[in-house]
Amino acid sequence: MNTFLILIVLVLVAIAVWQMAKIFELSQTKTDRGQVASDLDNKYNGYLMFAFLIFIYGITIFSFWKYTKVLLPEAASAHGAEYDLLMLISFVLIFIVQTITQALLHYFAFKYRGEKGKKALYFADNDKLEMIWTIIPTIVLAGLILWGLYTWTVITDVNDEDNPLIVELYAQQFNWTARYGGEDNVLGDANVRMIDIDKANILGLDESDTYASDDVIVKELHLPVGRKVNFKMRSQDVLHSAYMPHFRAQMNCVPGMITEFSFTPITTTEEMRRDPDVVEKVKRANKIRAEKAANGEPNSDPWEYDFLLICNKICGKSHYNMQMKIIVESEEDFNKWIAEQKTFGQSMAATE
Q: End-to-end distance of the chain based on CA atoms, in angstroms?
């Protein structure tokens, strides 16, 4: 394998030397009229520019038509609608500017193509044009930036108003663990140095902290619809990123520190599964999975739509598989589920 890599490097070095020699040769002053483009060449190049313009517009329209259906469904969090509006406005502005600038670029490339006897005019400056193409983009970009900063400030304003549910998301290669504050809704102290696998203390909770005894540790995240949730995030090993795309939420999980994010779920899992677009996606996915299963391919079981917590930072070889199921349900169903879970104190007692 090493010999093969050395050969590849030598070949690439040889190609680089050859290209450099060609560049040096071309840089020498020569008069070779055979290398000068004719009017016919310039005309063909102008038409090719128009052809490429049609191509990029065509591929853009095709992408909108073909791939819009794979975008995320309607946001399932209270702040999601404003987030999506900001992204939509950004896309629309980018599309308009791209359409205009590309059309002008390719049109001018054709109109002012080289022709025998035609001289190019050169303007050292044009204050009016420079003001137009400087001031207008500055105003538009400043507006987007200010709107984005305001939206981000509102989204990341983690506070204790409205009696939020407190949940910790604990990241480690390559899985997630959730911890609830229990009846008092207060998380006990924790430190990775206190992790004790033998005693089932997988998150390093401080056993002497009375707030930790009623904490609930689970591998499936349940959230009550309509109630604000404050997330506290930790990482055991490397940098991870807690990404919940349906809720338009993402925050890095950094070793040695606690990061925070907050949102209010507004759509239950069952409501999302009844959405027509989601139903169509599930049908398409299961049709493909059925075809794969018929061909004997593994992991082709029927798929059911779920909210997911995934890692959005490449954290190792199994990064792609680092995810946790999220169930959004009514407050009544959530309270029933949480009451069925073992507390940290009960788990510790069972190991003694």
A: 53
What amino acid is encoded at 36 in this protein?
V
Q: Taking the chain (352 residues) in consecutive chunks of 10 residues, what is each chunk's mean pLDDT?
A: 73 82 68 65 84 88 83 87 89 88 87 78 79 87 89 86 92 93 89 79 84 90 95 93 93 92 93 86 82 73 84 91 94 93 82 67
- Nearest one of 351, 349, 169 to 253, comparing CA atoms: 169
Helical H segments across 71-173, by residue range: 80-111, 127-155
Q: Identify the CA nearest to 200 among candidates 217, 175, 184, 219.
A: 217
The three-class DSSP label of residue 77 is strand
Write down the pTM of the prediction: 0.75
Domain count, the chain: 1
What's the rounded Cα separation, in Å, for the pair 185 and 165? 7
Question: Sign of torsion, CA 6 9 15 17?
Answer: negative
Distance of CA 97 to the CA centre of its chain: 24
**Secondary structure (H, E, C), 240-292:** EEEEEHHHCEEEEECECCCEEEEECECCCHHHHHCCHHHHHHHHHHHHHHHHH
Does residue 108 fall inside a structural domain?
no
Q: Distance between CA atoms of 321 and 108, rounded to whole angstroms?
A: 50
* Residues present in the chain in total: 352
Nearest CA to 74 among 246, 265, 223, 306?
246
Pairwise CA distance, residues 53 & 51, whole Å: 5
Please check whether residue 60 lies inside any domain of the structure: no
Nearest to 74 by CA among 66, 65, 85: 85
The one-letter code for the residue type at 162 is D
124: in domain: no
CATH number of the domain to which 325 belongs: 2.60.40.420
